[in-house]
Amino acid sequence: MINIDYIKFISQDECFSLVYKYHYSKIKPKLTKICIGGYKNNKLVAVMSLGWGVRPKHTIKKLFPPLDTKDYWEIGKMCVADEMPKNTESEFISKIIKLIKKNFPNIKCIFTWADGIMGKPGYVYQAANFLYGGYITTDTYFTSDGEKVHPRTTGKIGGRPTKNFLKKNNWTHVKGKQFRYLYPIDKSILKYSTVDWGLKHPKEKDLKWSMWTLEEGWIDCERPYYNRDSLFFYNKNKKDLFSLRKDNKRLAP
User: Fold this and answer.
1) Cα separation of the two ends of the chain
2) What is the per-residue DSSP string for 118-177?
3) Quick one: residue 146, left, alpha or beta (phi over 0 = left, psi -120 to 50 = alpha)?
4) Could you give the CA distance from residue 226 to residue 74 in angstroms, rounded to a whole number?
5) pLDDT (tens digit, 9 = 90+) per residue, 144-200?
6) Three-state DSSP class for 36?
7) Of 48, 135, 146, 149, which sees the most CB atoms within 10 A?
8) Are the C-beta atoms of 115 and 54 separated by less than 8 Å?
């Protein structure tokens, strides 16, 4: 069964209209190069943005010292409409890889992360034949109603929340894993990598979380509660943000 009839380049507005509707993270990557849409019965049902993360040169040089930003793209956002079958993602990715090979011969690899904090070992990338390259431990925050707040966006309240801020506002500070994935369009680059890429992929059992507590510091915990429909912090107006900033006393002006 074919889930995606065809794909084509689309605008960022078209892409992120679907992201805002279906993706758990509403943050738009700043360094987006291209967006691609997947269609079923002429309806947009899947999108992917490609470009770079917040440190493009650092990312590629750390993984492949001889390469540079012109040689790779990172998946910024990818999402599929909820009504589509589960294997739609891998089919969509496969079509995108073919399009990149045809239209962008300079691109040697596609890099991405699977967000273990959100309970994602990367099954979509595994099904699309991406190689796995280990993990890093990272952290994020969750508001009292389960909204995910990336540390990069805490500048809205003057910087990372203080311990008193977390307690007063009932926020949770959580650590977890991010899993590296790579699709080597040019497989010869693998000999230059500082990372061992392979097919021994992580599974549910490899997901681990810890949370910070006033009483015991960092302790192991279950997967944090997440409310995809909550955009309380994301949509905060300046007045509300200033109020939160005052709570964050160590960093407030």
Assistant:
1) 58
2) GT---HHHHHTTPEEEEEEEEEEEE-TT--EE-GGGGGGGTSSPPHHHHHHHT-EEEEEE
3) left
4) 25
5) 889 888 888 888 888 899 998 999 999 999 999 999 999 999 999 999 999 999 999
6) strand
7) 48
8) no
